Amino acid sequence: MRGVITCSGVIVAIALIIMIHATITGNNIREDEVNQSLDSAMDFAFDRMGDIYADTDFTTYNEVKRQQILTDLMQEFCMVLSERVVSDGNIEVRLIASDLDKGLFQIGVTEEYDYPFGGGKGKCYYEKTYSFN
Question: Which long-range contacts (CB under 8 A, 24 or more apart) does 74-83 make?
Answer without folding.
Answer: 76/45, 76/48, 76/49, 76/52, 77/45, 77/46, 77/48, 77/49, 77/107, 78/45, 80/41, 80/44, 80/45, 80/48, 80/49, 81/41, 81/42, 81/45, 81/109
